[in-house]
Write a structure and sequence with these properties.
77% helix
């Protein structure tokens, strides 16, 4: 996106004044949409993290090779959004979402037959299971240390 923006700005100097003003308006709208999406994404990420506890952090941790945009696409796929809906929300072409999905599949090293949405759903379920086991373990230690329960009762 930044390279495209830079080439468009360089091209402005070659345009006539009326064309330049029109093109500057187009560039300003693109930048405004990008800034707006980034602000909306920050709020969305907070909400999504509350609802889908640990999904984004776990995805970043396990698959550190995913870009920020790919993480965003994964989060939206996790909500069962289709490529057209994601494209509309991210203000990109549906083909760009398809390419992102392809890159994500490659980075996750998914077999050809494995569905990306199914993988992300299973990944989320594993996150929930880890959180549950961690909480259960903490609670078990809390009760043992504070109330003197015998460990054998909990195993």
């Amino acid at each position: 996106f930044m390279e495209e923006l830079l080439s468009q700005i360089k091209y402005l100097s070659k345009m006539s004044e009326p064309e330049r003003k029109k093109q500057i308006g187009v560039l300003v709208r693109k930048l405004t949409n990008l800034l707006s999406f980034n602000q909306v994404w920050e709020e969305f990420e907070k909400w999504f993290t509350k609802i889908h506890s640990g999904f984004i952090e776990s995805l970043r941790s396990k698959h550190s090779n995913l870009s920020i945009t790919e993480i965003k696409v994964c989060a939206l796929l996790r909500l069962n959004m289709n490529s057209k809906e994601i494209a509309s929300l991210m203000n990109i072409q549906p083909e760009s979402v398809s390419m992102s999905r392809y890159r994500i599949r490659k980075k996750l090293a998914l077999p050809r037959k494995q569905n990306l949405n199914e993988y992300l759903s299973q990944f989320w379920l594993n996150c929930i299971a880890q959180i549950f086991v961690s909480k259960l373990s903490r609670d078990k230690h809390y009760w043992i240390s504070n109330y003197g329960f015998n460990k054998k009762k909990f195993t």
